[in-house]
Design brief:
Blueprint (H helix, E strand, L loop, with lengths): L1 E7 L3 H9 L9 E7 L4 H18 L2 E6 L5 H12 L4 E4 L5 E2 L3 H11 L5 E12 L2 E7 L6 H10 L7 E3 H7 L10 H11 L4 E13 L9 H6 L2 H8 L1 H4 L3 H17 L3 H20 L1
Parallel strand pairs: 1-2, 1-4, 2-3, 6-9
Antiparallel strand pairs: 4-8, 5-9, 6-7, 6-8
Length: 283
């Protein structure tokens, strides 16, 4: 069984669209778990009405939980994972939507491929600019293990990500202390624990790029709170073993600092990487 997990917060109209995109010919092998992170009373009421309607329309089991306190997107996902019954966990954000045949294609793929722990897909990014809609197709074509790791760290959990549930029991759930980059932290643990990582060429999800009440913060928050730099330090012993991953992630950290006019941090981070790499080569 696949458990599709959707965290939500004060976006009933978007939640309706996300749920409506879940289509499968194997309804008995799919469950949907929606976890509300203490939306307003009115929005929680709308959520309940939406789920009541779509249970009948989709003919898929939908379970709805409300956090007893604000836990953030990581806490909401963790609540849903703990409640899930499936062997596989599939993620969807409440403002995005699945492409029609993605769930069934993944069900077939997992039935044939037994050596998978995590996989993700290509995505379509939709952004409204005034009255127009800009569509970008984001492809990944990893050919080596290093390219696979580099690409994994560049994505978010919304990229059609599917994880074997038992993996969470081994490496842990999402870090609820992180308000952002909780998925990057999880992916580094996947690499550290040598999980079997795959990319599928399907387009799995439409990601809607908008400014309305994002569940995760922007890169200004990342920079000012040194989120990526903290992850670099935490997982340095893993990162340093993969040259392409190391170059890509350190470049990304420097770029985030530069885009936020934090020149001093760029210099300090560059010095840190030089010292760390020299020390690593000496031991």
């Amino acid at each position: 069984m696949i458990s599709i997990i959707i965290p939500t917060y004060n976006r009933p109209q978007m939640l309706y669209r996300a749920l409506s995109s879940i289509k499968t010919i194997n309804a008995s092998q799919v469950e949907i778990i929606v976890c509300d992170d203490r939306s307003t009373e009115d929005n929680r009421k709308q959520n309940s009405e939406i789920i009541y309607e779509l249970r009948r329309k989709l003919k898929i089991q939908i379970r709805y939980y409300e956090n007893n306190r604000r836990k953030g997107v990581s806490g909401s996902r963790n609540t849903a994972i703990k409640k899930s019954k499936g062997d596989w966990i599939m993620f969807l954000d409440d403002d995005d939507e699945f492409i029609a045949d993605y769930i069934d294609s993944i069900t077939s793929y997992l039935a044939e491929q037994k050596n998978v722990d995590i996989l993700w897909s290509n995505v379509i990014i939709s952004k409204k600019i005034g009255e127009k809609e800009l569509i970008v197709r984001k492809y990944f074509t990893p050919r080596t293990k290093e390219e696979l790791f580099r690409d994994l760290i560049s994505i978010g959990i919304g990229y059609g990500v599917v994880v074997r549930k038992s993996v969470f029991m081994e490496i842990g759930l999402f870090n609820e202390n992180l308000q952002v980059a909780e998925d990057t932290d999880l992916f580094f643990r996947m690499i550290k624990f040598n999980k079997r990582i795959f990319h599928v060429s399907n387009f799995g999800v439409v990601l809607h790029d908008h400014d309305d009440c994002k569940l995760t913060k922007n890169y200004e928050y990342h920079a000012k709170n040194h989120i990526f730099r903290s992850l670099y330090r935490k997982y340095f012993d893993t990162i340093v073993n993969y040259d392409l991953l190391c170059k890509s992630f350190t470049y990304w950290i420097s770029k985030v600092y530069k885009e936020n006019q934090m020149k001093k941090e760029v210099i300090l981070f560059h010095l840190e990487t030089v010292i760390r790499n020299l020390f690593h080569r000496c031991i």
